[in-house]
Amino acid sequence: MPWFKDDERTEPATPKRRQEAREKGQVAKSRELPSAFLILGGVLILYFYGQYMQRFLSQTTREFLAHAGEFSLSDTNLNLLGHYVLKIMAYNLLPVFLSLMIIGVLTNYVQTGWIFTTKPLEPDFSKINPIAGLKRLISMNAFVELFKSILKIIIIGFVIYKTIKAELPHLSMLTAMPYPQVFSYTTKIAFKICLQAGLVLCVLAFFDYFYQRHEYEENLKMTKQEVKEEYKEREGDPKVKARIRSMQREIARRRMLEAVPKADVVITNPTHLAVALQYKYGQMAAPKVVAKGAGFLAEKIKQIARKHGIMIIENKWLAQTLYKTVEVEDFIPPALYQAVAEILAYVYRLKGRRITA
Fold first, then answer.
1. Cα–Cα distance between 287 and 336 in angstroms, integer?
2. Burial 33-49 (b: 16+ CB within 10 A, else e)
3. Contact of 9 with 221, CB cutoff 8 Å
4. Which of 39, 66, 172, 321 makes a 20 to 30 Å CA pair with 258?
């Protein structure tokens, strides 16, 4: 991470950007969290399981020494002894190793979820670039890692110092104690130091996890241009889509205007709206809107109607109602049957007079 972030990267990462980063193995993850929990978990496991291990090994050792005189040194016996010792050690240490493995897997899974990718294993020649390596060494990330290491050393050193200082009055009495008590006492102090150090490391690891998430989000941020380019890839170029929509509207409008000569009447507002109606007796269940428009389009509809001798009737309420509630190629609702029927009857009467004249 460079010292100065790119000020142009101000947009949150899109789902596509996050998915691509995840496929590359780039996730918000703290390396401190598994380490801290492994230390703390290991200490607790040894504390509760250590007594059993000690008893088992002590018993095994006593049994072995009790039969030591009956054991003959030969290649076969030494081979069997080696297998026996390995079996005993595996039997004792396997629960510890399995517990630590489960802790390590869970702490990583909680952070990242299930992820499988081979991208990090692919060769990346930029990593052997000396200039890129120098940039990684002189970066904010390197400074933060150095600061965390120094902070851990200081805090753990302070914990050890305070613990040992509190036990100094008792150390002088160790020379008068038998070996088992000395061993028990030193084990107790060691456990106390490791437990406190593990708890401190866990606290630091939680802070590091939230820091890593913050840095992950910052590094995933995109520029406005990147967001636009991704939108174009996903949805298509907005200019092209707008052009397509414009062409579709133009085609629909041209088709609608071509249907105006088939209308029986055009109802107007009188100047702002125009709705063309068609009705074929016996073929249609109700009158149908074949064209409608406002402003320039309304004038165009009226112009075509005059050219083809279609009657234009002014009815402000009916024109507004038809324009707002009925789409082109839809039949009028039953609530408007009476009003439209009166107009159509009027138009048919006028046409009859004109024909018989």
1. 10
2. bbbbbbbbbbbbbbeee
3. yes
4. 321
Rounded Cα gap, residues 273 and 296, in angstroms:
9
Six-digit token string for 9: 């990267």
Q: What is the pLDDT of residues 44-56, one digit of tens each?
A: 888 888 777 777 7
Chain position carrying tokens 């967001």:
227
Indicate the DSSP class of residue 308.
Answer: T
Q: Assign 265 to helix, strand or coil.
A: strand
> What phi, psi does 57 have (nearest 5°)?
-65, -40
pTM of the model: 0.52
Angle CA 297–301–303, to nearest 5:
110
Residue 138: DSSP 8-state: S
Give SS3 for 331.
Answer: strand
Please give the distance of CA 276 from its chain centroid, rounded to a whole number.
Answer: 52
Tokens representing 3 are 């010292």
Which phi-psi region, left, alpha or beta, contains residue 278 (left: φ > 0; alpha: ψ -120 to 50)? beta
Contact 273, 298 (CB under 8 A): yes
DSSP H helices in 113-178 = 130-137, 140-171
The pairing of beta strand 311-314 with beta strand 265-268: parallel
Q: Which amino acid is at 323?
A: Y
Average model confidence (pLDDT) across the chain: 80
Contact 277, 259 (CB under 8 A): no
Q: What is the pLDDT of residue 68?
A: 65
First to last CA, the chain: 92
Contact criterion met (CB below 8 Å) for 2 and 140 = yes
The secondary structure of 274-303 as a DSSP string is EEEEE--TTT-SS-EEEEEEETHHHHHHHH
User: Phi first, then psi: what are they for 329, rounded to 5°?
Assistant: 75, 10
Question: Is the per-residue pLDDT at 343 higher than 50?
Answer: yes
